[in-house]
Amino acid sequence: MGDQQSDLTGGYADQIFKVPNPFYFTPQATMTAAPNTCNTPRELSALGRNLPRLAEALFGPNDVRIVAIGSSSTEGDGASSKAASYPSRLNDALSGQFPSKKINVFNVGVGGQEAPDEAARFKKDVLASNPSLVVWQVGTNAAWKDYFLDDVRAAMLRGLDHLSGVRTDIILMNLQYAPAVLDQQQQQPTPTTQQMLDIIAKIASDSAIPLFRRFEIMRYWRMTGGVTFDQMISNFDGNWLHQNDWSYNCIAQALCDGIVRAVGMD
After folding, report:
1. Residue 21 belongs to a domain
2. Which tens digit of pLDDT belongs to each residue from 17-30?
3. Which positions ≥6 away from 11 have C-beta within 8 Å?
4. Could you tell me if residue 145 is inside a domain?
5. Does residue 10 sit within a domain?
6. Prediction pTM value
7. Which backbone phi and psi does 92 adopt, to 5 degrees?
8. CB-based contacts of 2: which residues, under 8 Å, 6+ apart?
C-alpha cells in the first residue's frame, strides 16, 4: 500500500493499493529551502494592548523574567535543538533590542498538555519565577485532539484568574497554522479549530489581554508569502503539526516586534 507508484513495486503481496496522501498541500513533495527572511506585516504582529509591567521591568534596575508556558510548540518539538525553540529565539531577539538588560525567558512548555494541565502548573512553574510577562500558548491540542472546548475555556479563565492578583503582564498565543488542524483540501481551519480560535480571541478581548495571532501570521506566510508547509512545518513524527527552526524563529521575531511596540519603544 502506498501513495506513489514507487511504493508499490517489489514485495510479495497478493494485491496492491494506491491511496492518496492527504498531506500533499504543496506542488512538490520534496523538502525545499525556507526563505532567508521573515516577512510578517506589522499589523499582524501587533498585540493590540500595552505591556506596562514588562515596560516597568525593562526600564528598572533588575533582570527581566518572562515565562513561556504551553504545550509542545512552546517546548520546541520539531526544532533541531532547545536553542531553536521559540522561547529561546525570543530571548535572543529581546536581548538584541534591549542590550543593557539581562533578559531571561523561561521555557516551561510540556508536550501534549492543554489549558487544564497548564493552569494547574501556574503556581509552581509560573508564579514561582515572579515574571514581568507570561506568554501562554494555548488551544492547539484542544483542536487537534477534539477536546470538550467548554472545559478548555473554563481552564483558561481559571488560569487567568490565578494571574490576576500578580504584577505581571499576560499575552495569549493562539494555534499554529498547520495541516493537522486544517481542512485537508481547503487549507482552512476545521470547525473545531475555528471555534478554538474564537474562544481565545473572545477571552483576550473580554479580559483586556494582548493576543499574539500566531495562526493568522502563519496563514499569511502560506497564503500570501508562498511559504510551503514543508518549509515551515516539521513532519518528524508524521503529524504535520509542529513548527520547525525557521518558523519558530520567525514567530519569535514577530512576537519580539509586538512586544517592543507594546512597551512603547516603537
Report:
1. no
2. 444 444 434 433 44
3. none
4. yes
5. no
6. 0.87
7. -65, -45
8. 8, 16, 17, 18, 19
